[in-house]
Amino acid sequence: MLIECVPNVSEGRRPEIVNGMASAIRAIPGVRLLDFSSDPSHNRSVFTLAGDADGVERAVLALFERATAEVDLRTHKGEHPRLGAVDVVPFVPIEGVTMAECVALAKRVGAEVASRFQIPVYLYEDASANPARKNLEDIRRGEFEGLAAKMATAGWTPDFGPSAPHPSAGASVIGARMPLIAYNINLATDRLDVAKKIAAAIRHSTGGYRFVKAMGIKLEDRGIVQVSMNLTNFEKTPIFRVFETVKREAERYGVAVLESEIVGLVPSAALNAAAEFYLQIEGFKADQVLENKLRS
Amino acid sequence: MLIECVPNVSEGRRPEIVNGMASAIRAIPGVRLLDFSSDPSHNRSVFTLAGDADGVERAVLALFERATAEVDLRTHKGEHPRLGAVDVVPFVPIEGVTMAECVALAKRVGAEVASRFQIPVYLYEDASANPARKNLEDIRRGEFEGLAAKMATAGWTPDFGPSAPHPSAGASVIGARMPLIAYNINLATDRLDVAKKIAAAIRHSTGGYRFVKAMGIKLEDRGIVQVSMNLTNFEKTPIFRVFETVKREAERYGVAVLESEIVGLVPSAALNAAAEFYLQIEGFKADQVLENKLRS
User: Fold this and answer.
1) What is the ipTM of this complex?
2) Which residue in A62, A6, A11, A68 sits closest to A35, CA to CA?
3) % chain A with pLDDT above 70
């Protein structure tokens, strides 16, 4: 079983504090800290860890212990919106684990955080049963400064914990979601209007694919434009379908696809699905991938 | 480091002997027995194991010990050509290991087999520096029954060990090769001549791609034909190039590709290369695959 977890913490300016959090995670057996980075202007750090359910649970609780002791939202400033010391904690199913199991884990961790640290916890994304409280942006709107007032209004009782913010640590948003794929397609043109029109055609918010967020941007140094995307569920909206649609829409303007790029990590299954599609492979099973077989 | 090893043993009719060989492999630390199967008409068994260099070396030596004690080629009958009790031993680089390291391992194991069991050893494929002794078929021609005479002729001194066959265990062929991919493309036609012409166009032996073996066959029950292939080096002759060529050649006869299929295991890198090609992904690195990163 392999679960990824990407906690975001509201501290990105004091390296000694962030390093202490990293050490606390590394000390937990059954989990690996794959990466962590801080953004001083956001005053925020992102940790990427992976392991089994017990390992990631214990690592997240260790992180809450540190962050609750070290971060005070009453004096915290930064460009990035935030609600809590440990702001958001997504659990992501990678291998040998279902979304349902990640949802159960998010609820277990949420209950434990609430009872151990007296921090209110909101469930989000797949862990939330409430449509008004699925999107992180909706839950976080108003930020820490508006949290006490928001929690007093109807519909904002937290899923776990006290009905008022923790004085210094605010509230936390914990949930489960699919892996994100940051995917860009570069077009052989400098026409920003074409990139923007294509982005509008494919993104969910303006009528496109359900699990695509997209915008058109200019790559000034290269004199070309890019459709910059987040694919939020590669099983239901696969990479190849998005690529083929962008290519077809670009043709409409006489524009060719120059190249695409994957930024950061991509699950093996997302690439395999593209190979299956283009090679028209029938009856393929994940355990035919040699590496999967070797590690099963 | 992950090396696959697929020893073929000349015993496929006595399950208790084959199971004893499997147990001997399983008892070795640092190696896993992924699969083994016996073919009684071939009177031959194939073991698939994987591990680090030390693990696979020790497992292969344990297998030689069993096979040399239990198999006597003087009384062995079967449909499959064979030269020795342990007939052929390929080492296959999978991850974090080079072909050169697998060649070095094949030579080390070959020398050890020769000195410990007095069995002559021929190196093959990437481990052989002699063009006349690269192909398994060339080395094995004449089989056990013709081996003593063959070894007495010029050019057939073994790479390691005595210059005459082991009385009961014959000789062994040990080497290193890339993973094989068994890949078939089904055509939406019942015209066997089309499948045969396309097979001839793409296979190495008749002028096609260097690392393709291919034949055209009829799938009687489905009323269609198939180009049935072995891809012997997916890095140098990638799946997508073969697929696109077959598709283009089929168009020439007004025939469409119905589907393709991968039989058995395929390295993750072979599928990723297809995704990169069709999605035009630039600058992709293997450690962007989440699973690779998690396990590095």
Assistant:
1) 0.73
2) A6
3) 99
